Amino acid sequence: MTIYTNKHHIPEEIISALENDKYDSQGADFTPTSLIQSPRIRMLNKIHADEIVKDVSDEIFKLLGQAVHSVLERANEKEDDYISGVLKKHDIVTEERLFGSLGGYTISGQADVYNKNDGMIKDYKVTSVWTVVYAIKEGKPEWDEQLNTLAWLHEANYGEKAKGLQIVAILRDWNKRESQRKGGDYPPSPVSVIPIEMWSREKQLDYMRKRIKAHVKAETDHFIGMPLPLCTAVERWAKPTVYALKKENRKSAIKLYPTIAEAEKGKKTIEAVAKGGAKAKYSIETRLGENTRCVGNYCGVAEFCDQFKSMEKKNERR
After folding, report:
1. Scanning 2, 65, 211, 242, which has the fewest C-beta atoms within 10 Å of its C-beta?
2. Among 235, 35, 234, which Cα is nearest to 149's?
3. Helix-helix angle 201-223:141-158, to 10 degrees
4. Ranges of CATH 3.90.320 domains, the chain
5. What is the DSSP string of 187-226?
6. 290-291 and 238-239 as β-strands: parallel, antiparallel, unpaired?
7. How many CA atoms lie within 13 A of 243 on its CB side?
8. DSSP symbols for 87-120
9. Burial group, residue 261, by CB count within 10 angstroms (0-12, 13-18, 19+)
């Protein structure tokens, strides 16, 4: 059981609410979230379950997410009514836990919402503006993976495919003035609906089989005394070292380069054509890469991770 501290004197009732989390996978071997998780992180959480220490302040956004889910339960309580003379049935299913079997393992998951009227599976996220901006631009693979696992569970239980998948993001830091001022990529509303690609059944199965295999191997390796698999660069949210070409008295970089050689070449080129010639001063700043998940307190088990400790020692020798 996680040990909680309360460094910022958060009220007792909030702590009680956090501790009274009703989530229960009901004995399933895997859930959509655990399939996505790094096998190393999942195993370290299991091995050190009674040693993990968190401050309650780090869990507040988790509580906000749970609050949204509780409010959503009202959606399926509304009676049928007539809209424009047509009977409108409020066939909205919330928080229904579904089970499926794959390769001898039980997978369990629950979509926040399944709307029978439009056949849409939806997952609600309380997140930041820039998470959504980045997801729309670059994609967010874990959202695709989670929703497609839920889609597979839906088809396994109902015998039919869902019509579509959506992330409904509630933006905790959305600001109306910022929206009006920035425009462009900044979301126009504090709620963003993001369509998720529906994979073929074959692709869904292939993804789940690979993830089950990776997690089972990690458990087996630990059981026989073998090292845990290493987290990949993607799983560490790794940012590479880059070299920033900067102009004197300017805070932001003119351009970022992946190697020092390319940065030096860029510096020579811009110095040759820059207005003001020798008067313009340019420099190259090294911005060391980092494993954002490990160092940013997003992992939770970094203190028990020999891979993280080894990488930290390498960084100290730089």
Report:
1. 2
2. 35
3. 110
4. 3-223
5. -SSSEEEEEEPPPPHHHHHHHHHHHHHHHHHHHHHHHTTP
6. antiparallel
7. 14
8. EE---EEEEEEEEEEETTEEEEEEEEEEETTTTE
9. exposed
Work out the percent of the chain whose per-residue pLDDT is above 70: 92
DSSP code per residue over the chain: -PEEE-TT---HHHHHHHHT-----TT-SB-HHHHHS-HHHHHHHHHTTTT-EEEGGGGHHHHHHHHHHHHHGGGGSSPPEEETTEEE---EEEEEEEEEEETTEEEEEEEEEEETTTTEEEEEEEE-HHHHHHHHHH--HHHHHHHHHHHHHHHHHHSS--SEEEEEEEETT--HHHHHHH-TTS-SSSEEEEEEPPPPHHHHHHHHHHHHHHHHHHHHHHHTTPPPPPPPTTTTTEE--EEEEEETT-SS-SEEESSHHHHHHHHHHHHHH-TTGGGS-EEEEEE--EEHHHHTT-SS-GGG-HHHHHHHHHHHT-
Please say whether the beta carbons of 12 and 63 come within 8 A: no
The residues with which 101 forms a beta bridge, in sequence order, are: 106
What pTM does this model have?
A: 0.85
> What residue type is 165 in one-letter code?
L
Cα distance between residue 12 and residue 98, in whole Å: 34
List the beta bridge partners of residue 291: 238
- CA–CA separation, 78 and 244 (whole Å): 56
Identify the architecture of domain 3-223 in CATH. Alpha-Beta Complex (3.90)
Reported as a single tens digit per residue, the pLDDT across 66-124 is: 888 888 877 766 655 555 555 455 678 888 999 999 999 999 999 999 998 889 999 99
Query: Whose CA is closest to 31, among 150, 160, 155?
Result: 150
CA distance 213 to 224: 16
Write the pLDDT tens digit of every residue in 51-71: 998 888 888 888 888 888 888
